[in-house]
Amino acid sequence: MTAQIIDGKAFAAEIRAKVAENVSTLKSKYAVTPGLAVVIVGEDPASTIYVNSKIKQTVEVGMKSFHFALPDTISEADLVAKVKELNVDNRVNGILVQLPLPKHIKEAAVIEAIAPEKDVDGFHVINSGLLATGGKGMVPCTPLGCLLMLQDTLGDMSGKKAVVIGRSNIVGKPMAQLLLQENCTVTLAHSRTKDLASEVKQADIVVAAVGVSELVKGDWVKDGATVIDVGMNRIAAPERGEGKVRLTGDVAFDEVIEKAAYITPVPGGVGPMTIACLLRNTVTAACRQASIEEIEL
Ligand code: NAP
Q: Is pLDDT above 90 for 231?
């Protein structure tokens, strides 16, 4: 079997088009223009590229974008004060503080300062709690993107066996919760899991969010499984020239494509979905804050 590739780039474009349509309706029917504030501390090149891409896409879908570039010498107290200022700014429906933060700032303190209803990253403890208890919170963007691709590809997932590899608060744990809500039987694997290959072998759905290049091999995967690769690993690529790198996933794509029914590529799979879901979450936040229920996301 050769797997069908799930085109995350195309799917993300569809989500952005839907977001733009919703933004247009919110403006014309309700006089609401959703606004997203992005806060970046310091000048990390990767974070700067990522933030610029978020700002560009926010503007493209017709939302207001607020950008705050703060020096890496800022104190934790001043950063928290900035977040609290945005919490009470009515033009701002979503607040995103780009991670990682400089070492002298406790990330948890900053995340917990964000008003949960404006926490479009879904990292606030209130939002993780709501996700774990089946409540209506904000769902972290990367696992939300994976879920939307799975729903679109598989439809009903009831009773399917899912293995999520990786238990981070931002990807693995929320992904497991989302699959549980889909009535999957979920195994959450991590670095201490014994015989990871045999766990994966039983799964109808595999989500790899590990950060280890090409960890999941072809012979680990059950025939006909659906494989979502969250990994984004930059590895040396001397064949491209000295000092060059290439992007790989956590799945050995060339092997697994011969076993799975569906697979996401890296790049072009989960990556583009993350920012699309950030925009979608901002619309969700704006609708909830204005008590608008009729917008279909
Ligand atoms: P993380 O916080 O470093 O967590 C990695 C998880 O993988 C941990 O739970 C760790 O287990 C587990 N792990 C590490 N080595 C393992 C092994 N050999 N076998 C089984 N489990 C192992 O990473 P993350 O933030 O969740 O990100 C994971 C990957 O997704 C990274 O490549 C990251 O770049 C990528 N990512 C992509 C997007 C996107 O938009 N596409 C977004 C976020 C992250 P322990 O808990 O036991 O240490």
A: yes
